[in-house]
Amino acid sequence: MKKLIFIALTFIATIPLTHAQDVKQIPLYPDGVPNSKPTPATYVENDANGWARTVSIPTLLPYPADKAIATGTAIVICPGGGYSGLSMENEGISIAKAFNQIGVTAFILKYRLPSDLIMIDKTIGPLQDAQAAIQLIRSRAADWGINPAKIGIIGFSAGGHLASTAETHFNKVVIDNKANVSVRPDFAILMYPVITFSDKTHQGSKDNLIGKTPSQDMVDLYSNEKQVTADTPPTFIVMAEDDRTVPIENALLFYSAMIKAKVKGELHVYQAGGHGFGINNKTSKEKWFDWCKSWMNNNGF
Questions:
Q1: Contact of 124 with 156, CB cutoff 8 Å
Q2: How many DSSP H helices and E strands does the chain contain?
Q3: Segment 222-253, tens digit of pLDDT
């Protein structure tokens, strides 16, 4: 049975997801969600079968690392789902637990899915939530034993588009930030990501975020291979050559832009594995998470 418990003053909710322990969820905006319209009665949040849909109240699900092995590093996890749902188990909970095992505190971002029903400007809604997550974690780093200079972001599929947006659009702050807290992630991990909104895009993600008839300026703005600069944080990318959902060119375009901008990073391409394999590409004995751990170590994360 789904439960939703709001605790007075703290506004902390507990929602059990399928096959997961109860995790206290931290609302990103306790004083009210920005860029929002009144939520229609028909827009009912639905968490079932490991997925979250129609999210109107964005939250963070914290998975703290055991203090005995905690490294001080934190990561924001952006599950995928074509900007129409969030794969909370396959691309959220399993990923958080893997990072916990290497001493990294993880926060699953249950971000708003772009919708004209609940947002004034749906194109910035997910980015607002990603920036707010980084802002909140960096502001409260001491509470979780986190080094504020070691906060990364990982995204899968459309969540990879959100993560790549967060790491390339951080100079355009779209949330209230009176304290001027940096919303730049210190590193990024992009898993079979949607990157471009040009010819090789994932059409559903593009349509859901910027609409079916966007201007060319909007297409270019959210084609994140065009937004890479020398200030883009170090980035680790994983994709499968036979991905039939998101063309491999997405990863290649972003990595090529990184090379031109002299951004440190790695690109790993499986010869098989398709799309949406989460923590475990069953076609290979080689584990991307092992590669990722080594890369994080090599870069001091």
A1: no
A2: 8, 12
A3: 999 999 999 999 999 999 999 999 999 999 99
